[in-house]
């Protein structure tokens, strides 16, 4: 049994806590101290999630052996900076988010014995008060992000995630992250702006825009050394639209609830890399501007 710390009390954090608490001791690191009872709910099950909570201030330096960070893309860097001192000398850090974040500087600052991993997951859930509703179990991929992790990722996966439905390891996680990014770019902004469920994007009127978006992702990925086939990205996007046909994407829900979106880590990431490489990405640029405009309007 391992001691596992999970940052936050968000939807993915609680889904992971529920699963991992079957074999491990779980501590959630929360912003404020409070005695909450977290619950896990599916169509047929409701149960309490066995876990304790601590604030960051309550954690001694170098005390965490395994730290999972399932936060929004725009929160990752701040959280990494705040939590690095609490990670033990041989600690394992596991990032899990949608979109792309340049965490290379933060990972380079880790000690040579500290390992970093990525958990890319399409499990789905949402939170109402202290209950997480588990609504879907898509694929999960786990892989190393730095050299110490390259030696240990199979063992860490076996210990933590091998009993997850539809979970597997990959030595090279970057192509997986690019594919997830492509799917999110095909689905999230358009579904949010049009306020439609994911499956509605299969209508012919969206096809040209989706093809152009995927073409831009493929070109920018290639400029970073990641080779992806355009046909694979398009097929993947339409497969996920079909698998999640009745779901509203996270960005759709974020905009509807006046919450900040992860657009900067999706279309924004593509635009930033494209600018450095002199690649034109007008379709990603347009969605980036439109989603940010919609969010600014909603906040007024
Ligand atoms: N929900 C889903 O079905 C899926 C989500 N994802 C991705 O996983 C990531 C996490 O998503 P999700 O769980 O939905 O997000 P949530 O916003 O529900 O969870 C993030 C949690 O982290 C907390 N947090 C952030 N910064 C800190 C901090 N400095 N100290 C303490 N707590 C902090 C947040 O608190 P606060 O709210 O106060 O900021 C929140 O409780 C996202 O990138 C998302 O796109 C991927 C697949 C499916
Ligand atoms: C896969 C998809 C598009 C499911 O809705 C998702 O990851 C999201 O909504 O952020």
TrEMBL record:
Its EC number is 1.1.1.169. The keyword NADP applies. It catalyses: (R)-pantoate + NADP(+) = 2-dehydropantoate + NADPH + H(+). Residues 4-146 form the Ketopantoate reductase N-terminal domain. One of its GO terms (biological process) is pantothenate biosynthetic process. It is an enzyme of class 1 (oxidoreductase). Pfam families: ApbA, ApbA_C. One of its GO terms (cellular component) is cytoplasm. InterPro entries: 6-PGluconate_DH-like_C_sf, 6PGD_dom2, ApbA, Ketopantoate_reductase, KPA_reductase, KPR_N, NAD(P)-bd_dom_sf. GO terms for molecular function: 2-dehydropantoate 2-reductase activity; NADP binding. Residues 172-292 form the Ketopantoate reductase C-terminal domain. Keywords: NADP, Oxidoreductase, Pantothenate biosynthesis. Pathway: Cofactor biosynthesis; (R)-pantothenate biosynthesis; (R)-pantoate from 3-methyl-2-oxobutanoate: step 2/2. The keyword ATP-binding does not apply. Belongs to the ketopantoate reductase family. Catalyzes the NADPH-dependent reduction of ketopantoate into pantoic acid. PANTHER family: 2-DEHYDROPANTOATE 2-REDUCTASE, 2-DEHYDROPANTOATE 2-REDUCTASE-RELATED. This is 2-dehydropantoate 2-reductase. It comes from Pseudoalteromonas maricaloris.
